[in-house]
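User: Teach me something about this protein's shape.
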Amino acid sequence: MAYRIAVGGATGNVGGVMLATLAARGFPAEQVVALASARSVGQTVDYGGNRLTVSDLARHDFNQTDILFLSTGGENSSVLSPQAAETGCVVIDNSSAFRMAPDVPLVVPEVNVSALDGWSARRILPVANCSTIQLAVALAPLHRAAGIRRVVVATYQSVSGGGKRQVARLRQEVETARLAGSTVTWPTPETDEAVVPYAFNVIPHIDSFLDDGRTREEWKMEQELHKILAPEIRLSATCVRVPVMVGHAEAVNVELARALDVATARRLLAEAPGITVHDTPAPGGYATPLSAAGEDDVFVSRLRADPTVTNGLNLWVVADNVRKGAALNAVQIAEALIQRADFNAHVARRRGTA
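Assistant: First, the predicted structure itself:
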């Protein structure tokens, strides 16, 4: 069977990579529609070397779409996803709007593809947070082998995690500093006290602050990991924005329930789907956001024992946040979905061919 698909937010960072990923992986599509906001209507986007003209997402008839890949932010998704799903279209949603809904599965295919059994409850399938996805992929083989009690993670997240405007802002700050022959200065009342510079800086703040001092990004990592991997894992996260265009990195400390030596852990990770172990104790013998950019896999480096806790391991986890952390994971969900007889029967009923 071939499917009628649409990409909402086709002119954005994730939407462009989504279209490229669908084409590169040969997703069986009989129709591909590019959708975006009204201001983008009439623009063209690339799909496998062909140009698609962008149509208005708000006016699209989802009765004619089997799968919608939606990358437009939580506020839009909270309205559009239920509207599309009501027609029978399945929405694979890159926003946070429905991730924690109890009747909506949160799927990272390498980790918990069986959660797709609940696809039909609301016909909305969220994509997890980009930083959570790569962490879950790296932790899953260790948890299956030895059980994870506690995780402490510090993230180093690129500006593309915030969208096109943040990427443009970093570029502008770097260019401004180059022209001025100096680094970017801290904001002054004459500029904007609320805007902490990205360039030449490290910012321990992503998303809004909660009452307990955590940021929402840190809360999301904890809650989503519980839903994807195991609710009993204790997780403490500090999420940091760094002046990198693409690619998130994470320094991860793991406390296991049972002993697992480094050699066995390395083998388990190397054999796991979606992981590349790049771990040589020498200059360049590790992954970085730059080396991971454009790659599908989650990269694990700097794997070593932590002697300060019982059954402790340290690892460095890197992935392309726009690709694996958003677009690819969404496509992998769709690829798993179309293998299901119940989904194909649903499509056939909608088309009147059952």
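Now, about its shape. The chain has a mean pLDDT of 95. The chain has two domains: 3-127+327-351, 131-158+202-321. If you'd like, I can walk through any region in more detail.
User: That's plenty for now, thanks!
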